[in-house]
Amino acid sequence: MLAKVLTSSYMGIKGFVVTVETDMTNGLPNFDIVGLPDVTIKESKERIKVAIKNSGFEFPNRRIIVNLAPASTKKEGSSFDLPIAISILKSSEQIIPKLNPDEIAIIGELSLDGSIKRVNGALLMTIAALENNVKKIIVPYENRAECAVVKGIDVYPVSTLKEAIEVLEGIKEIVPYRIDLDNLNSSNYIYDIDFSEVKGQEYVKRAVEVAVAGMHNLLLIGPPGAGKTMIAQRIPTVLPPMTFEESLEVTKIYSCAGLLKEGEALIQKRPFRSPHHTASSIAIIGGGKIPKPGEVSLAHNGVLFLDEFPEFDKKTIEVLRQPLEDGYITISRVNASIEYPAKFMLVCSMNPCKCGYYLSEDRQCTCTPAQIRQYLGRISGPILDRIDVQVEVKAVKLENLDSSSCRDSKSMREAIERARQIQLERFKGLGIYYNSQMKGSLINRFCKLSQKEKALLERAYNSLNLSLRGYSKILKVARTIADLEESDQIKADHLHEAISYRLLERRLII
Question: Which CA distances in Å does 262 have to 110, 253, 259, 306?
Fold first, then answer.
């Protein structure tokens, strides 16, 4: 008997529906799986056999062929265990499902005892099922929360093969799992650290505020012990909450990477990724034999912090060019090209030289000009040109440690959220959320200048020898500064401040 069961899989962060077709014929006992399965699926044959037996059913002693359609698309992962087992039991007429096979999809990995384990990418598979008009899906119990985020499809979490069969046959009534998205706490800002602990760095905190408000890339440069890492580590405390659409994008990436915690429905805090400088280019950008998202994608809609920036391998730094400019990364393989989103705020910290005291006013630099050039040469001009806000972090004077007039995370976040709300209204329906994402016509549309401001920017362009990209960066940063002050027009003061954030790279030229 030919039996069909619907399931789904994913490639990158896009899911697709797969039909599991099982046919049994008389002949020498054999069990084959065709349709471009990977090694994990091929190895599932032994898991499925034992799981069926340990669940109280018989594994048919016949010639069994399982086809995963469409056969032209490579299938990966362990989520096919449960649908294959169901299709075998259905084909051997050991079970008679009441539900129409076109109405329900099934995903899950089987253990030898018949229990069902969580799978990666369950959210993507659920979305794919819904997009193909499937209104019900059976999922592992541990994946229930992320799948229930998808509206319009009934999610049935199960813990064992036998329980899944009872749902299909109507023996066991299970209420579809639901979560209340409206009551999810998206503004939980409880942190052990706060910007109020950063003393004597008000200028730097202002630069952080501007950078976060418009999601502009930020470079912190200064001597050892000035507080660069301390400041960067407190950036999560002022990050604005994500919209539902942004949260869903991030959750998709973490779902396929297998980084969602059990019971976690939706990632609501912006990611803050801080890889070590020994990380490889593949770890940063993504890839591998089975392409997985890298740090730039895991930081999507959040922050990627690279501490000791020049210590990263130069090749690793250079691969950041495309995602910084385009907002996505393409990983090409022989079988397919996979695209992962990578719209993130890059935050870097570095010393100005090997000893760290090249820009210091208090200590003498022991590096030669050649050593300084070599150290700074690890950061190429094109990468530096893509960093909107560059700020020097000076060593704090002892008398500034007792300062009580320093801003805390709460006041900074409130200002950032007001500016963010202005940007959300401005870009409504345009597919972007922040000033840093503006390109071409949008810059011309939202960053209009009067003759006075145009003349000021032209002088800066010529005197600082800026690139056209640097020119656009100044405009976008000035737009963010105007938003922080709730000004409709970009004024000369806003441009002056934006230009000041581009001056540091001129001081670093030896």
Answer: 17, 16, 9, 29
Please give the pLDDT value at position 404: 58
Residue 464: predicted pLDDT: 85
Q: With contact defined as beta carbons under 8 Å apart, do 303 and 270 qualify? A: yes
What's the CA gap between 130 and 182, in Å, rounded? 21
**215, 390 in Cβ contact below 8 A?**
no
Which residues neighbour 264 within 8 Å (Cβ) at sequence distance 6 or greater? 145, 146
Run of H or E residues at 480: helix 468-484
Query: DSSP assignment, residue 238?
Result: G
Neighbour tally for 33: CB within 10 Å: 22
* 3-state DSSP assignment of residue 137: strand
Alpha helices in 181-300 (DSSP H): 202-214, 228-233, 244-257, 281-285, 295-298
Q: In whole angstroms, give the CA distance from residue 68 to residue 54.
A: 25
Greatest CA separation for the chain: 89
Helix 492-500 crosses helix 451-463 at what angle (to 10 degrees)?
20
Q: Residue holding tokens 């409709």?
A: 488
Task: Report helix, strand or coil for 11.
Answer: strand
Looking at residue 358, its amino acid is Y
10 Å CB burial of residue 22 (0-12, 13-18, 19+) is: buried
Q: Could you tell me if 387 and 345 are in contact, meaning their C-beta atoms sit under 8 angstroms apart?
A: no
Rounded Cα gap, residues 78 and 219, in angstroms = 42
368 phi and psi, to 5 degrees?
A: -80, 160
List residues bridging with 348 in a β-sheet: 219, 306
User: Cβ contacts of residue 326 below 8 Å, gap of 6+?
Assistant: none
Q: Which amino acid is at 38?
A: D
Residues of the chain with pLDDT under 70: 184-189, 334-335, 399-405, 505-510
- What pLDDT does residue 336 have? 72
pLDDT value at position 505?
67
Under DSSP, the state recorded for 379 is S
CB 147, CB 129: distance < 8 Å: no
Residue with structure tokens 């997985």? 292
Per DSSP, what are the bridge partners of residue 303? 272, 345
Spatial CB neighbours of 273, under 8 Å, sequence gap ≥ 6: 295, 298, 299, 302, 303, 304, 305
